[in-house]
Amino acid sequence: MKIFLSAEHALHNPPFELLDGKPTPYFEMPRRVEIILAALTRAGFADHVAAPSATIADLAAVHAPDYLDYLANAHDRWRAAGLNEPVFPSAWPLPGLRLRRDCPQAAAGSYTFDLSAPIVAGTFSAARSAAGAALAGAEALVQGERGGYALCRPPGHHAAAAMAGGYCYLNNAALAADRLARSSASATTTWSLRAPAVAVLDIDYHHGNGTQSIFYERSDVLTISLHADPAREYPYYLGYADERGAGAGEGYNVNLPLPAGIDDAGYLKALEQALQIIVDYGPRYLVVAAGFDTFAADPLGDFALTTAAYQAIGAAIAQLDLPTLFVQEGGYAIDDLGNNVVALLRGWLQR
Ligand code: SP5
Ligand code: ZN
């Protein structure tokens, strides 16, 4: 299995975030990648590909041009205005306020929905590098690879078309899914003129609000997310079971909110439900938004999964028998993160 790397991820290294009102050292740190990479290498995953960074044209497939302009220039404009490092919003255009983006502070509030996505000098370069890894992984599946793992950092599933948040700036999994959905049907099957259907299965602890919103009105990409119930957990404002898609996308978004403390057996049962929905949908490709903050020791989560669960999750996903791209999302229990990634990929490979 090829491992697609975000070569420039370390350029993104914010000093802190504000978590539930508390200034906290940034959980989403470069060390996450080093630990995952070391574990993969130890486990014999040696086929590493340094993917080129995504271009603005690549990103425009799922992101708004004005948002990309913001990400590209926010840091320079912030510094030029004499503001402090890093870029952080301090006011948001909630309903009843004027929507304006014509000064650096108003732009930050308009394009960032929380206090976990600061912008430092290298943020956009790192994010384009992560997106490039996901796109290279998608391209490899189109070329006939059965599986791949994109070691994306920063992660992506909270980023919407024009919104950063939750450590995410560009939606890596959505870019990959969109690329797969738009891939020429002729690459492998000359008999089909239909665009290939794609399923995105999000197993991060948090709801993948960005991915959901990007595909909410599309039927060619099924989005399905297992996550902590947003009634008690971030991202609070999306991720409920009654969000089923809209317009042409009605019925093509599925949310499975889960209770605190859920263990391996409970989780795997919910996963079976998700996998059956994917079978019924019948996609040509699968993208797994793979977060590991479901792990018992994760500092942000309240699930109780063990390392063995990730192997079982990988094996269950393998039963779908689909070309599959794993895209790295969250996971902050640093000491176990590498082993958990290896367990998931091994489980899938030993299908
Ligand atoms: C990609 C990803 O996993 N992003 C996660 C962003 C989570 N932001 C969390 C905010 C709420 C945290 N409350 C946790 C309390 C733990 N003691
Ligand atoms: Zn998460």
* Order of adjacent strands in the largest pleated sheet: 4-1-5-10-9-6-7-8
Main beta sheet: strand number and arrangement? 8 strands, parallel
Annotation, overall tally of beta strands: 10
Hetero groups bound? N-[3-({4-[(3-aminopropyl)amino]butyl}amino)propyl]acetamide, zinc ion
What's the Cα radius of gyration? 19 Å
The multimeric state of the shown protein is single chain
Low-confidence stretches: none
Q: State the helicity in percent bands.
A: 25-40%
Termini separation comes to 13 Å
Mean pLDDT: 97
User: What is the element string, with H for helices and E for strands?
Assistant: EEEHEHHHHEHEHEEHEHEH
Inertia-based shape: globular
**Structure class:** alpha/beta
Task: Note the beta-strand portion.
Answer: 5-15%
Enumerate how many helices there are, as a single number: 10
Short note summarizing the structure:
The chain has 351 residues and is of the alpha/beta class. The chain is built from 10 helices and 10 strands.
